[in-house]
Amino acid sequence: MRKATIAALTAATFLVAGGYYGLADALDVVPGPLTVAPVTHELQPFPTITSATPAAQAAAGLDDGAAVPEATVLAGYAQALAADALVGTATTGVSVIDVVTGQTLVDHGASSALTPASSNKLLTAWASLSELGAGHRMTTQATFQDGTLTLVGGGDVLLAADQGDPDSVVGHAGLGDLARAAAARLADQGVTSVRLALDDTLFTGATFSPDWEAGNEAWVAPVQPLMVDVTSYGGATPYPQDPALEAAQAFAAALTQAGVSVEGDVTRDRAPEGAEVVASVESAPLSEILAVSLKASDNAMTEVEGRVLAAATGHEASFTGATQAVLERLKADGFDVSDVTMLDCSGLARGDKVPARLLAQIVARAAGQDGGTVGRSLITALPVAGLDGTLHDRLTQGAATGTVRAKTGSLDETASLTGTVVTRDGRLLAFSVIVDGFETGGLYSARVALDRDLVTPMADCGCQG
Q1: Would you state the pLDDT for residue 65?
Q2: Rounded Cα gap, residues 300 and 293, in angstroms
C-alpha cells in the first residue's frame, strides 16, 4: 500500500512539475517536488484539504541503542548545503540534535536569527498546546437577553454552515446545530422572533498584519474568532472579506429554518454581561486542529490559534498580544527566546527572526521522552515526507520518504524545514534548517539543495563514529 501511495504521489508530482512555484510556493500553500525541472509561470491550484479527521500516524519511537551519527559527517552535509550554488549568497542556519541525549551534533550558524517562514508556526503550536492543553476546544455560543440573540465567536474557524460532524475536525461543530438548539430553547420561552447580533470581540486590533506584504490577502483570511470552514478558501476561491459576518448570516438562515424569524439585519455588539447562554457547540480538540493547520500550513488557522492563546492568558488578542503570549509560554517552558523577533504567529512576515537552534530544540523536546502529550501532539501533526501535507510530493524517493516529519517554510527569499528524521541506523534526530536571503525566484532551487544536500543524506546516514 505504501509503495502504491508513493507511486501515486510521484505521478502527481510529474503532472504538476510544469506549474508555477512562485506566489503559491512562497506562502507555503503549495509544496514543491524534488526535481530539477524548469519552473514556468502558471499559478498552481490551491491544495484540496480534506474535512475528515486526519489519520493519526505514530511517531517513530526512541531507540537509545541505535548508532549515533558522526557529528563531523553531519556537519559536512550542512557545509555542502551552504556552499551549493543553488542557494547562492543566502545565509544558512542548521541545527541537528540527537533526541535521546539532547546533544547538539551540528551547529552551523544555528544561533543566527533568520527569517523562519512557516517554521514559525511551530512556536505557536508548542505554546498553544503547552498552555491550553491538547484537549482544548473552542466554544461558539448563542446568548439571549431582552429580545436579542447574540452569536458569540470563540475561535472556531472550521465551523460547518449547517450540521456538524462529530467524526470530523473540519466542520466538527455546526452553525445549523447551534441555531436549532437555540430555537428549541427559545420556543420553550415562547419566543419566535429575535434581533440577531454578532459578538466577535474576542479578538481585537487589525485583522490583517501591516507586516505582511501586499497581495497576501490571497493566502490568509482576515483574523476573526469565527468562520465557516476556513480550509474551503484560498487560491482560486478568495477568502471572504468579513468571515465572522458571513458565519452570522449562515446562522441567521439556519435560525429562520428552525422557526425563529430574525428582525432586520445582523448587527455587531458585545453579548450583554449575564445574558443567558441558550446554546453552544464545541470544536474538535486542539491537537486535532493542529493536525490540520500544521500539515496544510494554514496561515489563518495559526493566527487564530495565537489569538485564542492570547485571550486565554490575559493578553490583548491582537497580533502583538498573540506573539507576546507565545514567547512568554516558550520562555516559561525553558526555551531561550532572547534572539527572537516575532511579528506574527504564521510566519508570513519577513521581519520574523528565529534561530534554527531554537526550532530544533522545540522539536527535540517534543520528540523526546519528556515531550508528553504536548510533544506527541506536535510531532504527529507534522507533514510526513512523500506522504501527506506540504511534504506529500516532496522527498518522494529515497531514504527520507516516510522517515522525515517536518514543518515546511517558504517565502520569496527564504526556505526552511524543521522536524525529525530517523537515520538508516535508526537514530532519531531533530533538525532545523533555514536558507535565508537568496534572490527572488530562487525558492525552488533552494528547496532542491536543502533536500538533496542535507535532509536525504541525514536519512540515509549509516555514519556512526
Answers
A1: 83
A2: 9
